[in-house]
Task: structure prediction
Amino acid sequence: MKNLSLIFASLIINVSVSTAHEGPWTAARPDGHAPISVMGDHMHAMGEWMISYRYMTMDMKGLLKGSESVTATSQLTGMTSMVPTEMTMDMHMFGTMHAISDKWTLVGMLNYLENEMNMIMPMNMTMNTKSSGIGDLKLAGLYDIASWEDGRRAHLNLGISLPTGSIDEKSGNNILGYGMQLGSGTLDFHPAITYLGQTENYSYGVQLGGIIRIGENDQDYTLGNKFEAALWGARKITDFLSASAKFNYSSQKEIDGAHKGLTTMQKNMSPSNQATSQGRDLTTFGIGLNYYFQDGGLKGHRLAAEWETPLDQKVNGVQLELDSTWTFGWQYAW
Ligand SMILES: [Cu+2]
Result:
């Protein structure tokens, strides 16, 4: 895996320094959109619309304490009597984009989430918890900073998310752990800068951004701020198909404050309920395919898939280990 990622890294770097193509950047090729897991990667020409649906499924299995693997049973000590063993997060993401001018593209996105977590307790007892519902509504404006004649361009992502996702998800009468809640509960600012380039058969992009939480939510806590960097490269294989490789690094701080619905006993009982066992540093590598229908009845439609797996992760406190993430997407622009 490490060797493979080195090959892709050198590929991305080679592509980035080689000369760009004639004429400005264009979305009208399969790699005119970034790997499907990247949000707000491209802009539209004035008057254009796009709608999209993404399905993302994230698998977590096994426990980490910092960057060390530990068994779930080894954590059942002292007052700790409930330890997570696996979790899946499924996200249905609905998005729309509209360019009100060549300088501004507006973006709206709403997710529907489904979470499921298994836990173990002393004497081999197990417990399964679930939560589902809409997440935080995200609105953004993408502002064109510069477009060069050789296929490079840069834009600013100015996004906010509104706390439409629930932070009161329960199992019976008990508030679920932080990872099972559906929203942040706070108004969040999502700034980023995106830089793109295209050559005849290759394309690349860099996006640096983050999430800055504003204030405290009505349950008296604030999720950690997040920094995220993505670097990707893609090769146009045919006029319809491209293949991509992506590196992603993210770092999220632990939680500030604590959910007021959790009692001291509940916090002691499970790391899932502890503010210090939230947030992580994560480096992932992903490969993906983009397919772009350029003619016929499906002209303007795109299909894409991407698979990502961690190269390195270090969690705050004790948390589940990320195993892999799949993202599938459909996009249609007119
Ligand atoms: Cu779009």
In short: The chain is about 5% helix and 55% strand. The pocket of copper (II) ion is lined by residues 42, 44, 50, 97, 333 (CB under 6 Å). The helical segments are 2-17, 264-269. The radius of gyration is 21 Å.
